[in-house]
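Ticket opened by: R.M.
Priority: normal
Category: complex prediction / small molecule

The reporter submitted a protein together with MV4 and asked that the result be attached to this ticket for the collaborator who will pick it up next week. Submitted input follows.
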Amino acid sequence: MNKILVANRGEIAIRIMRTAQKMGIKTVAVYSTIDRNAPHVKFADEAVCIGEAPSISSYLNANRIIEMAKTLQADAIHPGYGFLSENAAFAELCETHGITFIGPKSKAIKIMGSKLAAKEAVSQYNIPLVPGIDEAITDTKKAKEIAKSIGFPVLIKASAGGGGKGMRIVEKENELEAQMKRAISEAHSAFGDGSVFIEKYVSSPRHIEIQIMADGHGNILHFFERECSIQRRHQKVIEEAPSSILNPELRKKMGEAAVKVARSCDYLGAGTVEFLLDSHHNFYFLEMNTRLQVEHPVTELITGVDLVELQIRIARGEKLPMAQDDLNISGHALELRVYAEDPLNDFLPSVGHLKTYKLPSGPGIRVDNGFEQGMDIPIYYDPMISKLITYGKNREEAIQTMIDAISKYRIEGVETTLDFGKFVFEHHAFKSGRFDTHFVPKYYTPESIEQHKKNDAEMAALIVAKHYMEAQNKLRLPR
Ligand code: MV4
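Result attached by the on-call engineer:
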């Protein structure tokens, strides 16, 4: 493999190119017209424009990207996350054109892209699933029977959904019919597939996911868990590894289950198996993400592996260079996604001009960044600007480093989720490790940040006043 085209933008494109460079592989960036001066373009050995700003004309333009890969003689494409990363047709198109897709085979993407096909695939592998049905249901009478047998509340999910899209909680039997009709019609218009199914609603779960890696020689490893319960509206904001709730025994069980999920779909490359963990420490398979995830750095920091390097090696046909017993957790890592969003205004995108943009640095701090001071943040794409990742020998140290690093970030021109992050990291529920997926709606109000800021401002004022008085006292020393 001599040259990799990275079919993405922002921090992840740079992250991937860094490892390619380290491995002596040339890199090609693709960009839309609005990104022509973006850091990922400057970072690459070669760069090529693939279309206008809207994703559909550029980063989602599969044919154009393949054409450019061929023209520039790239022998592999790394899709990053989002965009074409979980597009089975794109993976297939790469194969057809003799270009290595750095990811799983299209078959695995297809299976895991359908929640029902995923359940079907894992059904022979003794993986715990949430009580419910594993087939599409349209008959409301049958749905009622099933719901009654598993007990309310139940959750209606769209098979083609995922990441929380198309989910509906049903508390009582008399709401079921109306909710199902709505769910089916919504799934139709959102995904072009009206299949829905029913599961028992797990009321206060934690979201735990396991990183796996599979080579083409039958070896599958897991790289332990990431705790992703701190989300808002199904968008993760904070992730950590390891989870403070798992013990070695449960970790081993979940890791082994994740490996079996990967085996069930003949997986290749990096993948993530999502589980719900209920308050009794029962875990249930939810879905598998067939890509490198945004939050992969926390796993890299606690295991010391470069996951992108492993992806590339596997794509080259190499065997995984380690065994499960070689892998250990060392220390603790946290990630805060820094979005150009306004936490005081319902997290609406706050895109605009990055007037000031200075990143923190120091021991235990890693920033995966995609922007530079003076740039505009385009409205066309995800508003994540960078990821602040910290490492410590234990959780307390990682949290303290995080809080210090947040205060060293300097961003002017747009609102960001930095203050929101500070609120979470300083919250007693987060610090104690006792939280679940309801953390944000349960504890966060815009006032809580404003109060925080006020307290900080008052503290700053007190410090200044103290210094002032001390200075005054010195001045008043007897002459
Ligand atoms: C659930 C659930 C409770 N019970 N399934 C949301 C994202 C998608 N991957 C599945 N999700 C959930 N599925 C059952 N049977 C609760 C959620 C859920 C959730 C999961 C992970 C992280 C945050 C969440 C927030 C709300 C709901």
